[in-house]
Design brief:
This protein is an alpha/beta fold. The chain has seven helices and eight strands, in the order E-E-E-H-H-E-H-H-E-E-H-E-H-E-H. The protein has one domain: 3-Layer(aba) Sandwich (Aminopeptidase), CATH 3.40.630.10. The protein has an eight-stranded mixed β-sheet. It binds zinc ion. The site of zinc ion (ZN) has 4 residues, from loops. The site of zinc ion has 4 residues, from loops.
Length: about 220
């Protein structure tokens, strides 16, 4: 496994990925955590999965794994949802439905799409690595945990649900203009899962529930 930097945040913190040796014959699976800095369970799950892959050569060779545990390092530093410009990165993608929102809202998508260095780094990573599957990890309150999917990913979400027992959902229940899943899944047709962890569960529970769900991504 090799760790490298794909860009810098507003406050110049590195945005890092850890990748398995890339085999041109294998599919690339991209896993993102820490989109929202106040969802540390997503970061922890990514880090545990990196540790697992590092110690399991068979699993490592089943895909080109690319894992970015902290997409929003400035927000993570102070456990804030948004980045240092007070932009919700998960509303800052250049989708057809991007809309200018209220700058005071915690879901403010920026003054224009793709305005943030973190968004640009993610877009470049996806264009360069051409993933076959993307999982973006978040956490959510009030028992709304789910394997949410965008684009042609229902089968993958269903397989994850066999392992984690979370419901499979296509819509999160509220509009998400400029969201990452809209950009990758709906518009680019890259199978994309938004894994919403239960925010009331412990790190350990989230890992135990989702370890096999993440492993299942390597299945065809
Ligand atoms: Zn989130």
């Amino acid at each position: 496994m090799r760790t490298s930097t794909i860009g810098k945040s507003v406050q110049k913190r590195p945005i890092r990925i850890t990748a398995s040796p890339q085999n041109p014959k294998s599919r690339t699976i991209l896993i993102l955590g820490g989109f929202h800095g106040d969802e540390p369970k997503s970061v922890h799950l990514c880090e545990r999965f990196i540790e697992l892959i590092e110690t399991d050569p068979a699993l490592q060779s089943r895909a080109n794994w690319i894992i970015a545990p902290r997409i929003n390092p400035d927000g993570y530093q102070i456990r804030n949802r948004r980045n240092a410009n007070k932009v919700d990165l998960n509303r800052n993608f250049p989708t057809k439905n991007w809309t200018l929102g209220n700058p005071r809202s915690r879901m403010f998508g920026g003054h224009k799409p793709k305005s943030e260095p973190e968004t640009k780094a993610i877009i470049q990573l996806i264009e360069r690595s051409n993933p076959a599957v993307i999982v973006t990890i978040h956490s959510i309150s009030n028992n709304r945990f789910c394997n949410n999917y965008d684009g042609p990913a229902k089968r993958i979400a269903t397989r994850m649900s066999l392992a984690n027992n979370y419901p499979v959902t296509e819509s999160i229940g509220y509009p998400t203009p400029g969201s990452f899943g809209n950009w990758t899944g709906v518009e680019r047709r890259i199978p994309t899962i938004t894994l919403e962890l239960p925010s009331q569960s412990s790190h350990k529970e989230c890992w135990q529930k989702n370890k096999d769900a993440l492993i299942s991504l390597a299945l065809r």
